[in-house]
Amino acid sequence: MSADYFNKLTKNMLLNQKNKKKSIIIYITGGYPNLKTTKKLILALDKAGVDVIEIGVPFSDPIADGPTIQEAGFIALQKGVTLGKIMKLTGEVKGKIKAALVIMGYYNSFLNFGLAKFVSSCKRNGIDGIIIPDLIPEESRIVSELANRAGLSMVFLVAPNSNEKRIQRAASLSSGFLYCVSVKGITGQRTKLPNINSYISRVRKIAKLPLALGFGISNKLQAKHLLKSADGVIIGSAVMSILKANTGKSAVKKVISFVTTLKKGI
Distance between CA 249 and CA 121 in Å, rounded? Predict the structure, then answer.
């Protein structure tokens, strides 16, 4: 773990790991279908007992995201959603929720915003952790140092084809959890996921912090199976598909129904 502090993200994840409770991490695209719904979702997901809420920052070229999240991001951008507006929204729920908030976005968004300004804004507006999929650990020194000084967690990604050196580097710079990509590819719902037992076992020998699996997880059966090996699951595209298929109040209700079923299933 890269720091000796304990923010809400590290507390939630480590407490769950200690108590052998599996962590549920839900991704939503900030501002989709609108910022008002995003705020309602954050509050409702927290009430439903989600451990971590990951908020995606819409970006024009999201290389790690599949079509569902790409479309959500495009629509949010068309409606004028910005990093600043998302930060304002998280500031409004600061102190009102038990779930940890993690912001996920691409490096260029944060660089254009100003890295020091971005990190201080995260701290001020209730963000506990940062995920930047296109920032490799070897080039993360500036952001990692800023985050550490602010008491924020950096969460790095590893994949099934990551070698031991990369896993060690990513784990040493991460706190809260290590993001284990379950497949070689982009996000998106999948009917079948690969066997990840040997992969997670290999990562666990190197990384001592909680391991959360993401990419491709669509339902409670997949989540339950993966959680035999991992400490947590990250689910995004399945949630965004529900939002796309529903409107108004029913959209939030449908998402919470999905999350409730998921939690009961595992």
Answer: 30
- 54 counts as catalytic: yes
Side-by-side strand order, sheet with 129-131: 153-155, 129-131, 100-104, 52-56, 23-29, 232-235, 211-214, 178-181, 157-158
- Whose CA is closest to 260, among 91, 26, 98? 26
| 61: annotated active-site residue | no
Distance CA 148, CA 171 (A): 14
Mind listing the pLDDT tens digit for each residue in 6-53? Answer: 699 999 999 999 999 999 999 999 999 999 999 999 999 999 999 999
**Distance, CA of 152 to CA of 120 (rounded, Å):** 10
According to DSSP, residue 227 is labeled T
Choice among 46, 54, 128, 231 that is catalytic: 54
DSSP single-letter state for residue 128: -
d(CA 188, CA 132): 18
Residue 188 identity (one-letter amino acid):
G
Please name which of 177, 150, 157 lies closest in space to residue 25, comparing C-alpha atoms. Answer: 177
Query: In one letter, which amino acid is 43?
Result: L
- Catalytic choice (51, 65, 128, 231): 65
What are 174-216's pLDDT values in tens digits?
A: 999 999 998 654 454 444 555 688 899 999 999 999 999 988 7
pTM of the predicted structure, to 2 decimals:
0.93
